[in-house]
Amino acid sequence: MQPQITVLDAGGQYCHLIARKVRELGVYADVAPSETPASELKGRKGIIISGGPSSVYDAGSPTIDPALLTAGIPVFGICYGLQLIAHQLGGTVEKGERGEYGFAELDVLDEDTLLRGVSGTPGVSIPVWMSHRDLVAKPPAGFRGLASTDTCPIAAMGSEEKRIYGVQFHPEVAHTPCGQTILANFVETICGCTKDWDPARQIESIEEHIRQVAGSRNIFFFVSGGVDSTVAYTLCLKALGPDRVHGTYVDSGLMREGETEFVRESFAKLGAKGFFVEDARKRFLTALAGIVEPERKRHVIGEKFVEVQERILEGDNYMDGGWILGQGTIYPDTIESGGSAKADLIKTHHNRVAGIQKLIDAGRIIEPLSSFYKDEVRAIGRQLGIPAEMLDRHPFPGPGLAIRCLCSEYEGASQKVEEGWILPIKSVGVQGDSRTYRPVLALDRFPASEAEAAALINRRSDVNRVLATAYSQVPLGELRGHAAQLTAERLDRLRRADAIVRRLSLAGGFEKEVWQFPVVLIPLGTATHPDSVVLRPIDSVDGMTARAVRMPDALLQEMSKELAAVEGVAAVFYDLTNKPPGTIEWE
Fold first, then answer.
1. pTM of the full predicted structure?
2. Catalytic status, residue 295
3. Active site annotation includes 172
């Protein structure tokens, strides 16, 4: 099928999400490298340039063929895409005095074609999602400023004559409520695209793809029990039949309380015949001994999975060429792992480490869901008739509790600053589409609003998260960071805390109010209570962006009381950070 819209990948985490949002409008879109020559894009009705972490002044930063801006094809730049258009056409791009991450208030200055229908009540700002530091200070000749924020004078610009537009914010993410209207204005009104994409035919196409890739070979899955691997496994069952699809659940010892039993029962209900459980708890814990750095931890887990997988495959005669390996990899896994051409590495997923990549290169892997996002995967699962108790589970990371049990090599005291305390604990974040690894800011109170919490992050460049204190047995200044590894004792402590949070969230109905609820253990405490718990409830659609969600006070008090009683827990914190600038997981 000939795409009507092509999204040029300028190195951001969102290029495939933009394409998917266009497909939601019923218009087929694809993704191509930013430098794709204009001659190869003939026949497109529109071009969208994605965001990215670069500056237009950086050596080797992504660029586009200048001919695209004079070819008469409508062009829409997002974030870095806006800056690139302005730079190439003679506008002024400057380094921002401070970054803008998360929600911002947009003031529409001129409701032209691109922003038609998004301003709501005249004079009232509308929320949009930002992730940038550089900004356009002056638009090119012939362009008008269409919108602004407090820190960004040109938050949107356009030229009706040239049919070229740009916005500094991200309209493709769920937390820009008017975003789909803006994309529709560009795709439908400006580009004049017609509807040619029917998502209802996806399952049939996926099953045909499975049959083509598998051929006469059977498929073997290492399932996690999560939504992605369960849907991928079920698709293969439906495409090939249960006799040709086997599965093994590897118990790594890094899973939640009662997880192994739940997975065993669930797959029996799906009609799986060749399903097995492999006990590898000792192997994983031994391999992770002494590992502290987040990326190294993910790599070790990934390689250990490959080692266990290869041993099972070889021992059960799965290596004789009659079998291929199936996985539930989805789009965000490949994008955040640097899977798009220029995307900055945010984290390495356990199914994208070197060992797995070798299997992919050998043509021995099938990933039926690699073009889909979490909400699309759930929709496919519902069409397949998978029970809600499986589909409605919160996403859980492949490396398990290992990336929610933070480790450290050093000891240190909390540092008092004007806003609160900077804790001697680092977490992974994503700021300006780039990976950061920075300390966190803890407050002894809850901010009055979500905007106040976001402003604290934007004001300080040395942190990427802000926490509120829900409980602490000592003043924050007396909590100390200490050297800590991934041990059975700490994992059991986290498992108990996670079970408490899940039980109370389910009983209180809060679990339905959030997309995911990571519970994190950090090596911060006292001599007798060495760890603290961080609560991280978030709302999202696809995991690419997320909004921190505040739970009811009564539930938080009850939860904090039970968590305080867990042996070794000194404090309970509440993560108020959106994504960006904080990733969903802490690592």
1. 0.68
2. no
3. yes
